[in-house]
Amino acid sequence: MGVQVLESKSVKWHHVSGVHEGDLKALQAKFKFHHLDYEDIRNESPISKMDAYKHYIFFLFHIPMIDATSGRIHGEAVYVFLSKDDLVTVTYAPLPELDAFFDKMSRNIKFRSVVLGKGTSRAMYHIFSHLFHESLQVVGRLTQEVHRLEELIERSHDKRLTVDLGHARRNVLFLRHLVDPERNMLVSLRHTQRSFIPEEALVYFDDLHDILDTIWLSSDNLKLLLDGLFDVNEALISHKTNQIITLLTILSASLMVPTLIAGFYGMNATWLPYVESPKIVALMYLVGFIVMLFVVMGIVYRKKL
Questions:
Q1: Do 146 and 229 contact (CB within 8 A), yes or no?
Q2: Are residues 275 and 225 in the same domain?
Q3: How big is the CA angle at 270 (ends 267 and 276), to the nearest 5 degrees?
Q4: pLDDT tens readout for residues 204-248
């Protein structure tokens, strides 16, 4: 799509959605940012970071998104250059929420003046406030999924449920992995003094930090809840396994007497009683099985009581 530019007063927002090498070369020709920052964009660094320079600050944020096909949470990278007069945002994959925000500003001049009219730092706040509030919907979907699993675990505890619990735990842990560095970045930003970040703008970055704290605390509570559900699921599976083992034990023990009788009569010994009466021998098998079945069941269930 190339580099798109919006301007209000002296502030310009340069936005690149779905960046290509040609877009990066165009940015390098226009802005003399450090070459290591451009290398971070080319290498698609997986960890959020902040690098402060004399005339600008470079940020790498990862916005939590849920894949529509797999249901897995991943982080869409948003690279930001913040300077006195220019705000540059770069994404590798088109980010619908960010692109929609840019389109709204391009159509609405009044909204554009509100976002860009008070400096680049305030513009960055408005952009990421919108993105982080969208991320709260990810937390909402995770919460719904955990509640669904909580209700399901009362009715069944099969392999599918265990797999779903594993996926939910992975999503919660990955969400924490995305948010934690960004919280630290915003704390560090408060102690980074630059002329293009006025003191009153720090209050707005504190608001961004509060949103991330909300996401962090919510994911932490979901993690604790999932840990508890894992324990309950393991206990139910263990109980089901014990029931199966108990049943097999009862059947195995009940066959001891019939097996013993079959062992004797299978030797074709002529001196055994009723050797010429197969109906009586079969009755002995049946009586032996029933007697041992009641004896073993009595022992097993007496222990449980």
A1: yes
A2: no
A3: 100
A4: 999 999 999 999 999 999 999 999 988 888 888 777 777 788 777
> Domain tally for the chain?
2
CATH of the domain at 51: 3.30.460.20
Same domain, 234 and 259: no
Q: Give the separation between CA 266 and CA 183, rounded to whole angstroms.
A: 78
How far is Cα 141 from Cα 226, in angstroms, rounded to an integer?
A: 14
Residues 6+ apart with CB under 8 A from 84: 55, 120, 195, 196
φ, ψ dihedrals at 111, nearest 5°? -65, -35
The two structure tokens encoding residue 234: 């393991």
Report yes or no: 148 and 225 within 8 Å, Cβ to Cβ. no
Greatest extent of the chain over all pairs of C-alpha atoms, in Å: 115
- Say if 148 falls within a structural domain: yes
> Which burial class, exposed, middle or buried, applies to 70 when counting CB atoms under 10 A from its CB (0-12, 13-18, 19+)?
exposed
